[in-house]
Each structure stands twice: as C-alpha cells, then as structure tokens.
Write a structure and sequence with these properties.
Helices cover 25% and strands 22% of the residues. It contains two helices and five strands; from the N terminus they run E-H-E-H-E-E-E.
C-alpha cells in the first residue's frame, strides 16, 4: 500500500502514515510512504511505527517485520521549499500579546 505525498511537513507525514496503516494488509500489502525528503528523525519515527518510507533524494527505511530492515540516510535535501507565508494576518500568526 503506497501513499505519495507532495509535502514533507510533520503534519502531512503523520497523516500519510495513518492513512497507509489503515489500508495496509500485511503480509500481502505492507505500508509505504513516498515523499520528496525525509530527515533522519522522521526515518526513525517511520521505523518505530513499522511503516516504510522513502524519499526522492535517496534516503529511506524499508520495514518488513521479522524479515527485512533497510535503513539509508545522509543524502541532502534537493527539494527545498522556500515559499513565502500566505495570509500573514490570518489564524495564529496574527495573534499578539
């Protein structure tokens, strides 16, 4: 079962992990999340959740319980997102003490 995400934000990754775990049916279908970049901390979270995750930079963890564990890290982020904040005065960003 594969979930492909366009964003690598913590919230997007958490939601992707939950969705893919809900539909995965081991031993036939194992969960896998594909994103543009996975930092090392997120790879450890994926491993502990029992979900495989790979990125487009060459980092990843592949988990098949009691059979296989592949862990690769160290490749830099080639998909940096430096978008400006939209709607600066909307939501929590407009609060002042």
């Amino acid at each position: 079962m594969i979930e492909v995400q366009r964003l690598s934000t913590p919230k997007a990754l958490s939601e992707a992990v939950e969705r893919v775990r809900r539909y995965a049916r081991p031993p036939e279908f194992y969960p896998l999340v594909v994103v543009p970049y996975l930092p090392e901390a997120r790879l450890a979270e994926f491993e502990s959740a029992g979900v495989s995750g790979i990125d487009l930079c060459g980092n990843g963890v592949v988990v098949v319980p009691n059979e296989l564990l592949v862990y690769r890290t160290g490749c830099p982020n080639r998909f940096r997102s430096e978008d400006e904040i939209k709607n600066v005065f909307r939501g929590n960003s407009s609060l002042a003490a």
